[in-house]
Design a protein that fits this description.
By secondary structure, the chain is an all-alpha fold. The chain is built from 12 helices and no strands.
Amino acid sequence: MSSLALAVRDSSTMLRRNLLHARRYPSLTLNLLLTPIMLLLLFVYVFGDVMSAGMGGGADRSAYIAYLVPGLLLMTVGSTTIGTAVSVSNDMTEGIIARFRTMAIHRGSVLVGHVVGSVLQSVVSVVLVGAVGVAIGFRSVDATALEWLAAFGLLTMFALALTWIAVGMGMVSPNAEAASNNAMPLIFLPLISSAFVPVDAMPGWFRPVAEYQPFTPAIETLRGLLLGTEIGVNGWLALGWCLALTLLGYFWSKSVFDRDPK
């Protein structure tokens, strides 16, 4: 069997292992999924009318629902990948990685299994949050099939990028609690992006924090694809962030994983 076939076989085995863990212990994924859903319901039904009026949509909260959902979809990606950091940390600290090192398996298959499994979970979580958004009034009637495909591709690429970062965080964390804390920026950054309010509405001193981070251009690109708003340079910035974070997370994770255990 060729090395490529061995890598695919072993990666598939590790993927099944991680999906089996997610099925047997769903509490972490469900808890992380509840965060964007609760924020969606809170901002729509508590602040929706006021926010819509402030955005020029009158007293109808539908304008704010349309604005909010794309940001919450990307926040869902960030929150789901925290589970990846915890899972990787558990593997690194509980001895299973040491066991894998002694077995005749492809060395990178352990990481590939975590990454692919996490991306699949992120996609499922995004679909669930999107279904909640549609149920409470979100509509994307002007988006073409190509734009929907591009939106799905952006979400998948962003999930891949954040997953590699989460894998690196999990590998350098001494325990699961530290991994969860280290990955908290993946939930915190969307809160200070354009997910909830336009960047132009933020104070001048705070605006650069929201502008120069990965979530804002990705959110604006997703809005443009789903709602027909202007994308501008945000599309290229989002792709650049995805590529940069993927490469950073990959080489970071690989360098830590390839170190000889102490």
